[in-house]
Each structure stands twice: as structure tokens, then as C-alpha cells.
Design goal:
The protein is an alpha+beta fold and 212 residues long. It folds into 2 domains: 41-159, 2-Layer Sandwich (Alpha-Beta Plaits), CATH 3.30.70.100; 169-211, no CATH class. The chain contains 6 helices and 11 strands. The chain has helices spanning 17-23, 27-32, 79-93, 122-138, 181-184, 187-192; strands at residues 2-4, 8-10, 38-40, 43-45, 63-72, 101-107, 113-119, 142-152, 169-172, 198-201, 208-211. The strands form 3 sheets. It has a 5-stranded antiparallel beta sheet, with helices on one face. A 3-stranded antiparallel beta sheet has the order 2-1-3, with no helix packed on it. Strands 9-11-10 form a 3-stranded antiparallel beta sheet, with no helix packed on it. A hairpin with a 3-residue loop joins strand 1 (2-4) and strand 2. Helix 3 (79-93) packs across helix 4 (122-138). The protein starts with a strand and ends with a strand.
Length: 212
């Protein structure tokens, strides 16, 4: 998996270590780096189930939430039992009526695991993540740190179900030639945020905040 901040996310399947470096040299990924730094994460399935990162296994679930987990492994538990506990806690946390699917992946990074959730509501995904956290704590497994990113599969955006009062905030860093007027009457922003939006000039790391 590879992504850039605020912009795009992509999943690149590989079947061997040689594929890792080759898959990250595609022209599409290099194009992203013109706009922001690229981050990548190498994942592998912990269980034998079909991967939720594949679009064909997540039909009707346009939202994806990826949470990398740095966990404290109790010293008396071996790796196989540890993986089984993590998967059991996940299975117990998933409720079919909430239209959320989840899957645990291992990480080849400083993090131990990655939890992938798919659904059609951010509220449901956030609730599921909180339930899983409590389930792990009850099993005696604690978090050192976590990191979460979320994205929307644009090809399935018609299946996205959220309350009409949901609002978003997009913060931008711009060159000095870009003024607030560039965003106040932009047809593309108006199309994306159909209920209206406001643009604010902010101080600090970012220059503008679009809220709608």
C-alpha cells in the first residue's frame, strides 16, 4: 500500500520480495510525488482469508480505514497464539448489522500489524475501531501507539452513506501566488461540497482551510 497526505491511496499486490521495489516505480506513483511526499507500507495477510484490500472483496464498502498498530506482546504468549488472539478479538468486535468488514495484516515495518476496515460510514468505522481497542485491552494486549488513515474508493462512492450534516475540513499549503479568491468560487469544490463551503486563511503549517 502507498499513499500521500490528503490526496490518494493505492494498493499494489506483489507475490515476492522482488516485486516490492518494482511496484513502487510506476509512473502513476512518481506523479503523486510532485504534490506531496509518498509513504508506503508492506502488508501480508495473517489469516488465509481473501484480502479486503482487493476491490472485488469489498463491493458496496467504499470507505477504507487503515490503522497501524504497535502493540505490547505479553512475554508468555508465542507468536501463533498472539495472532490467533488478535484475530479472535477482531471477529468478536465485528457486527454484521453495522455493514463493516475487518481484516488483520502483518507489517514489514516498525509497526507490528495493520487493521483494515471497510464500510459505508465513517461513524461505523470509528465505532468499530473503538470496540476493537477495548476488546484487545480486555484480552491483556495494550497499544504503544497507533496511526490511522482513511480513504474513499471513488468508483464506489454511490454506496457511501453518511448523515447530511457531516462536514469536512481540507487544509492546504499553497505557493504565494495562490490567494483565497482561488477557492471561494471554484466550481470543482462547489461540486464536491454541494451543501456549500467556507474558506479560511490560517496561520501555521497550512495556508487555507476549506470547510464544507
Amino acid at each position: 500500500m502507498t499513499w500521500t497526505n490528503f490526496d490518494c491511496m493505492d494498493v499494489l499486490p506483489v507475490s515476492g520480495f522482488q516485486g516490492f521495489s518494482r511496484s513502487l516505480e510506476s509512473e502513476a506513483l512518481k506523479e503523486w510525488e510532485k504534490y506531496d511526499s509518498r509513504q508506503k507500507l508492506f502488508l501480508y495477510l495473517v489469516s488465509a482469508e481473501q484480502g479486503l484490500l482487493s476491490p472485488e472483496n469489498a463491493e458496496g464498502l467504499p470507505l477504507i480505514m487503515l490503522t497501524v498498530l504497535d502493540l505490547e506482546k505479553p512475554p508468555h504468549i508465542d507468536t501463533a497464539s498472539y495472532n490467533e488472539i488478535l484475530c479472535q478479538c477482531l471477529e468478536a468486535s465485528l457486527k454484521p448489522e453495522e455493514h463493516v468488514k475487518g481484516q488483520l495484516y502483518g507489517c514489514l515495518s516498525i509497526y507490528d500489524y495493520a487493521l483494515v476496515l471497510r464500510g459505508n460510514s465513517y461513524a461505523a468505522l470509528e465505532h468499530m475501531l473503538a470496540v476493537y481497542r477495548r476488546s484487545l485491552i480486555n484480552a491483556g494486549i495494550y497499544f504503544r501507539k497507533t496511526y490511522t488513515i482513511s480513504g474513499l474508493n471513488l468508483e464506489q462512492r454511490h454506496a457511501w452513506k453518511e448523515p447530511s450534516d457531516l462536514r469536512v475540513s481540507v487544509r492546504l499549503s499553497c505557493s504565494s501566488q495562490i490567494t483565497i479568491e482561488h477557492f471561494q468560487n471554484d466550481d470543482r469544490i462547489r461540486e464536491a461540497l454541494k451543501e456549500g463551503y467556507e474558506v479560511f486563511s490560517v496561520l501555521g503549517k497550512y495556508d487555507y482551510d476549506i470547510v464544507g
